[in-house]
Amino acid sequence: MSEESHSSSFSSDDSGSFSAPAPAAQQSMGRSRRSTGSADLIAPGLASEGQRHWRDVFWLGVFLLHMVGIGLVLTVLGLNRLKKKDRLNIDRYTTGLLQKQSGLTEDYWPLYGVAGGVGTVLGCLWLMLLGSRANLIMKFAVHILTTYLAVISVLCFWSERFFWGVAFAVGAGLQFLYVISIIDRIPFTMLILQGAVKMVWSLPEVMRVACAFMLVMLSWLALWSFGAAGVVASSIGDGGRWWLLVVFSVSLFWTGAVLCNTVHVVVSGMVFLVLIHGGREAASMPSKPVMKSLRYAVTTSFGSICYGSLFTAAIRTLRWKIRGFRSKIGTNECLLCCVDFLFQLVETLVRFFNKYAYVQIAVHGKSFNHSARDAWELFQSTGVEALIAYDCSGAVLLMGTLLGGLITGTCAGVWTRIKYPDTVAMVGATAMLMGMILVGLAMVVVESAVTSIYICYAEDPLLIHRWDVEFFNQMNETLHQRLQHRSARAREVLTAHSRLDGHTQETLHI
């Protein structure tokens, strides 16, 4: 990329405020330093164990204690109604909340087994079709999700479940508005996703890592669904059961996010090394890089993964939605002011919680916040943040994950309606979360490749050029267009401010 392109980089999104561009000389020097010493800076991070230190140990302890505590509670609640009602005499603690005997754990556990099976099949199907049909599947997810949400909303209204009907209707509306807001970005998004798929498909090791973590997740889901089935079958009132399921769902979401981000770290480290060393079979590649990256991910860097997993997903989702709405508000100044405030707040949080931190964690073993700040500063100093703001690959992958979860929840919900109509919402909602986590574990391999490609492109564009010339040229062209667009927007803003200042001075003079 040329110095002119770098010198016109700005730090906010296409429709937002602008900050002053970094000096071209400084950017060129920084890029030169990274270009000449990329491999030297990065390879030792995965090659030498002596340089690794335990990071974010507090959050590692919190996560492990949470796993032990939740595991014990799930076991107790599952056993309490296994083959005998109130086996452990827990109902004596629910005085005043009792309504009726709902059933036994084994009545509902098969329903969760269906959810786990469907989620696993969908995840494995995604991995199998990754090389040949991934692009088609992602386009399908983008366009079908709105329709699927709308259909479920109608079915909920038909079943007189008005809360869920409204919830899914609102979700369908928001999804439709978001897709409309990003429709012009879909071609570039698909380009990035195709490049990421090409990368991971050439690395069978990362597929095996994803499959192994799906098995780990299934093991935990077996215990989780055992306890959740005990909760659904319990004699506690509907309010108490819902609160317990919400707590367990939050726990499951965190656990699933931790496992997904562990895969993210392992795959990112592998992809980054392949790009840095010029190929999987390069002589300079460390021995057993996947196992080395996996060992770091589950030991010294695991605390950082646990910490980042608490907040990253929610902040990313909120950022995507605000970006989409912000670009379509128009001239409503009051609404634009409110959304701008939220946007700036979320942008501040993104500096400390972004998915690109996991690449820095994989390569350098830094703490999560340190990694997130370094990654974001790297993007802003090189102008690559303009591409990231334009790219919607993370949102597209999330749509695929949501679709997988909805299909899983629908399958479990239909069977539940046939056998136990009163508990459709409880089983369907929790089954949907199970499906999302299992499909997300398959999707994360592509997302990891996307983040690694952006980090490498910011560190040294020649790494991408050496890997795929055509892909590099298309990225370079898009970056140039986005930087020109931002420069034009900045000039418009400055011109408007100059005119306003001139008008104000004339008024005061009069």
Automatic annotation (TrEMBL):
<keyword id="KW-0812">Transmembrane</keyword>
<dbReference type="InterPro" id="IPR007603">
    <property type="entry name" value="Choline_transptr-like"/>
</dbReference>
<dbReference type="Pfam" id="PF04515">
    <property type="entry name" value="Choline_transpo"/>
</dbReference>
<keyword id="KW-1133">Transmembrane helix</keyword>
<feature type="transmembrane region" description="Helical">
    <location>
        <begin position="57"/>
        <end position="79"/>
    </location>
</feature>
<dbReference type="GO" id="GO:0022857">
    <property type="term" value="F:transmembrane transporter activity"/>
</dbReference>
<comment type="similarity">
    <text>Belongs to the CTL (choline transporter-like) family.</text>
</comment>
<feature type="transmembrane region" description="Helical">
    <location>
        <begin position="296"/>
        <end position="318"/>
    </location>
</feature>
<feature type="transmembrane region" description="Helical">
    <location>
        <begin position="395"/>
        <end position="418"/>
    </location>
</feature>
<feature type="transmembrane region" description="Helical">
    <location>
        <begin position="424"/>
        <end position="446"/>
    </location>
</feature>
<feature type="transmembrane region" description="Helical">
    <location>
        <begin position="162"/>
        <end position="183"/>
    </location>
</feature>
<feature type="transmembrane region" description="Helical">
    <location>
        <begin position="136"/>
        <end position="155"/>
    </location>
</feature>
<keyword id="KW-0472">Membrane</keyword>
<dbReference type="GO" id="GO:0005886">
    <property type="term" value="C:plasma membrane"/>
</dbReference>
<feature type="transmembrane region" description="Helical">
    <location>
        <begin position="243"/>
        <end position="276"/>
    </location>
</feature>
<comment type="function">
    <text>Choline transporter.</text>
</comment>
<feature type="region of interest" description="Disordered">
    <location>
        <begin position="1"/>
        <end position="36"/>
    </location>
</feature>
<feature type="transmembrane region" description="Helical">
    <location>
        <begin position="109"/>
        <end position="130"/>
    </location>
</feature>
<protein>
    <recommendedName>
        <fullName>Choline transporter-like protein</fullName>
    </recommendedName>
</protein>
<feature type="compositionally biased region" description="Low complexity">
    <location>
        <begin position="7"/>
        <end position="30"/>
    </location>
</feature>
<feature type="transmembrane region" description="Helical">
    <location>
        <begin position="206"/>
        <end position="231"/>
    </location>
</feature>
